[in-house]
Design goal:
This protein is α/β, with parallel strands linked by helices. Helices cover 36% and strands 20% of the residues. The chain is built from eleven helices and twelve strands. It is globular.
């Protein structure tokens, strides 16, 4: 039996319920009240956790992009100003932390630089998400690994060699891998869901799925292929402003996703062939030779 990893008191892995993460990311557009509404939607849907993204703009925005003008709902501003405008500060995250604890629902973040890891560490997160974009940032991986918490490593836009190099730096007893294709939104023919099984065969850790496609059916297919956790972006309205909105799922869709995952879990069973009590009257009636 594959190992399990404890995330905030919930075991994730073989034999455990699928762990569902609603990725808020930057879909809050820097608005704490919008973030709370997204948390509410995730709670109502039955998700296990919500996830945010944390960056230090001075470290994450390349110098050549900092002064590039960008049209935003708040007017035209430089890309650096926009990035700072959408980052929550310590007071905002303290508010998010209290709000999630009250619901209750777990919250975590993908940290794109070392100061962001230290920032989120102050909130005692149940785990860290390592974004696909930072999979080859070995110094960041080492820093996250040093915190001693569970880690979910997303594998989008990565070769198997890059994935192996990243996994080698991380504590396998605290590691989960997420199959992912880093296209927003992603075409079905590029999802390559069987990679879930490829990763599970090579790495001794729970493997899940982080999806950016339109629709729910392919995420449900990921569960039937063995995904131990799933992550989908959540939004109040896919037409809202923001780079991730189009690849996100609206509240009613998230609720259907969680509902259908729970049905699939029951339907998959344990693989042991048996005759159910409900079949016995039918067997007695229809079988001429027993």
């Amino acid at each position: 039996m594959a190992k399990t990893v404890d995330i905030g008191g919930k075991l994730v892995g073989e034999g455990c319920p699928v762990f569902v993460i609603a990725e808020i990311g930057i879909n809050h557009n820097g608005d704490i009240e919008l973030a709370k509404r997204l948390i509410d939607a995730a709670v109502l849907a039955g998700c296990d956790a919500v996830k945010f993204q944390k960056r230090t703009p001075e470290l994450c925005v390349p110098p050549e992009q900092r002064d590039v003008p960008r049209e935003t709902p708040w007017g035209i501003m430089t890309y650096m100003t926009y990035r700072k405008r959408t980052e929550f500060d310590a007071d905002s995250y303290a508010e998010i932390d209290a709000y999630c604890r009250d619901k209750p629902i777990l919250w975590l973040a993908s940290c794109w630089d070392q100061p962001s890891v230290d920032f989120i560490e102050a909130f005692d997160p149940p785990c860290y998400k390592i974004a696909s974009a930072t999979l080859t940032d070995h110094e960041l991986l080492d820093h996250i690994n040093s915190k001693g918490r569970p880690m979910v490593l997303s594998t989008g836009m990565s070769t198997m060699e890059e994935i192996r190099a990243a996994v080698a730096r991380l504590d396998a007893s605290r590691l989960l891998l997420a199959h992912c294709t880093s296209t927003y939104p992603c075409l079905p023919e590029e999802l390559n869901l069987r990679v879930i099984q490829t990763l599970a065969a090579e790495f001794d850790c729970p493997v899940g799925y982080s999806g950016h496609e339109v629709g729910l059916q392919t995420t449900l297919a990921a569960v039937t292929l063995g995904a131990r956790f799933v992550e989908r972006h959540i939004t109040l309205d896919r037409a809202m402003w923001g780079t991730d909105q189009a690849a996100s799922v609206e509240p009613h869709g998230v609720a259907r996703l969680v509902r259908d995952i729970r049905v699939i879990e029951k339907a998959l069973g344990d693989g042991v062939k048996r005759v159910y009590d409900s079949e016995r009257p039918v067997r007695k009636k229809l079988r001429r030779v027993t």
